[in-house]
Specification:
CATH architecture: Alpha-Beta Barrel
Strand content: 5-15%
Number of strands: 8
Radius of gyration: 18 Å
CATH class: Alpha Beta
Structural class: alpha/beta
Shape: globular
Helix content: 40-55%
Length: about 300
């Protein structure tokens, strides 16, 4: 993969599970083909919506290898690392590189709050353990309790050759614009991590978006990017506005169950979220259904019945 291949809509793939909460490989492969056929420009395996925190390293490796095999080189495949310890992050990075991942995504450490220097060493150590693999930083202050600063991101971007981009899920448009402004001279790739900000990020100069809802409606999400790149800015904005109420309806659900709620609602049959997460019920679920209906999306990305997926 070349650096130029990093861009567009990257989907943090859902991880389907069976009744025993083991990865359902057949359905995982089905999801790979669904999103690639839907037009995505990359797949992130074991991102936050892929429930990376629910599976051990053996399951991570099995799932990653299945995705890489099924993808067959059609789009770049990235592997998500959310380890707290740096040593584990290095181990997972080496596994991903050995398995054939095109890149890795590294989240700031959860639960603990390192110093800025500690975070710098964490990211740099993991990246330098796989010098021939592209690395995307992942900033998710909502889940980690603190955010990556523009100073830290810029320093890593300039100091570490294979740290080539970031997914920013802060929802802070000023931060996104600063990350782009401060690194545009070196071609650093900034991706918005909020599905509602794809169009706005592109207007500022982002490289695309990492969008969980592309599991469900890939054609609509990819339409935002494709229309923008073709110069149809009004069309891109309208696709974003069509998407936003659907995405915002997920916010009433507990994290990360909403993506699987909607996936099962539209017939993807990906199994339940892994305990202690549980599927949504009642008005939370009904509001999601209403928003999908109002956006006329039940048919746009229709799928075969669960019986036909195999």
């Amino acid at each position: 993969m070349n650096l130029e291949d990093i861009g567009g809509i990257i989907v943090p793939l859902i991880t389907p599970v069976d009744e025993k909460e083991k990865i359902d490989e057949a359905k995982l492969r089905f999801m790979v083909n669904r999103v690639v056929d839907g037009g995505v420009n990359g797949i992130l395996v074991f991102g936050s919506n892929g429930e990376f925190y629910m599976f051990d390293e053996k399951e991570h490796e099995r799932g990653l290898k299945a995705v890489i095999d099924e993808n067959g080189g059609r789009v770049p495949v990235y592997y998500g690392i959310g380890s707290i310890g740096t040593a584990q992050g290095v181990r997972e990075a080496k596994m991903a590189a050995s398995a054939g991942a095109d890149g890795i995504s590294v989240l700031q450490t959860m639960f603990i709050k390192p110093t800025e220097q500690g975070l710098y060493r964490h990211f740099r150590t993991i990246a330098e353990a796989v010098p021939d693999t592209y690395v995307l930083l992942y900033n998710n202050p909502g889940r980690c309790g603190y955010g990556l600063t523009a100073d830290l991101v810029e320093k890593l971007a300039r100091d570490v050759k294979n740290i080539v981009g970031i997914k920013d899920s802060s929802g802070n448009f000023t931060l996104v614009s600063e990350l782009i402004r401060r690194t545009r001279d070196i071609g650093f790739k900034v991706f918005t991590g909020k599905d509602t900000m794809v169009f706005g990020g592109l207007c500022m100069g982002s490289s695309g978006g990492v969008c969980s809802i592309a599991n469900l409606f890939p054609r609509l999400v990819c339409g935002i990017y494709n229309k923008f790149m073709a110069g149809d800015y009004i069309g891109a904005r309208e696709d974003q506005f069509r998407l936003n109420p659907v995405r915002l309806s997920q916010d009433a659900a507990s994290f990360p169950v909403a993506t699987k709620d909607m996936a099962n609602m539209i017939g993807l049959d990906v199994g339940n979220p892994v305990l202690p997460s549980e599927p949504s019920e009642g008005e939370v679920l009904e509001k999601m259904r209403r928003c999908i209906e109002e956006a006329d999306l039940f048919q746009e990305d229709s799928v075969p019945s669960a019986e036909k997926q195999g």
